[in-house]
C-alpha cells in the first residue's frame, strides 16, 4: 500500500509538471505574439517620429532664410513643454556637464 501511494504521488507530480509545462508554453507563445506586436508598434512610432522630424526641418529657416541643416541641429523638448532647435555640439557639451555633475 505504501509503494502504491508513492507511485500515485509520483504520477500526480509528473502530471502536474506536464500541465505546468503546457501552461508555460502557452504563456510563452502569448508573450512572443505580444512582443512582436509591441515591436511593430515601436517601429511605426519611430517611422512617424522620423517623418515628423523631417517635416519640421523641411520647414525651418535660419535668420537669412536658408534651410536649417538637420545634421547640425536637434529638436529639444523641455520638461515644461517648450521646443527648441539646438546645435548638436551644444547638446553634447550639456550632456558632458550633466555627466560630470553626477
Automatic annotation (TrEMBL):
GO terms for molecular function: DNA-binding transcription factor activity, RNA polymerase II-specific; RNA polymerase II cis-regulatory region sequence-specific DNA binding. The gene is Nfe2l3. PANTHER family: NUCLEAR FACTOR ERYTHROID 2-RELATED FACTOR, NUCLEAR FACTOR ERYTHROID 2-RELATED FACTOR 3. SUPFAM superfamilies: Leucine zipper domain. It comes from Cepphus grylle (Black guillemot). GO terms for cellular component: nucleus. Pfam families: bZIP_1. This is NF2L3 factor. Residues 2-49 form the BZIP domain. InterPro entries: bZIP, bZIP_sf, NFE2-like.
Amino acid at each position: 500500500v505504501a509503494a502504491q501511494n508513492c507511485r500515485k504521488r509520483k504520477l500526480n507530480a509528473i502530471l502536474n509538471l506536464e500541465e505546468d509545462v503546457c501552461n508555460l508554453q502557452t504563456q510563452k507563445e502569448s508573450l512572443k505574439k505580444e512582443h512582436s506586436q509591441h515591436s511593430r508598434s515601436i517601429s511605426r512610432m519611430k517611422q512617424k517620429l522620423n517623418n515628423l522630424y523631417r517635416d519640421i526641418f523641411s520647414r525651418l529657416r535660419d535668420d537669412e532664410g536658408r534651410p536649417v541643416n538637420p545634421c547640425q541641429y536637434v529638436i529639444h523638448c523641455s520638461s515644461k513643454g517648450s521646443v527648441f532647435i539646438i546645435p548638436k555640439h551644444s547638446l553634447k557639451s550639456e550632456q558632458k556637464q550633466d555627466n560630470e555633475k553626477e
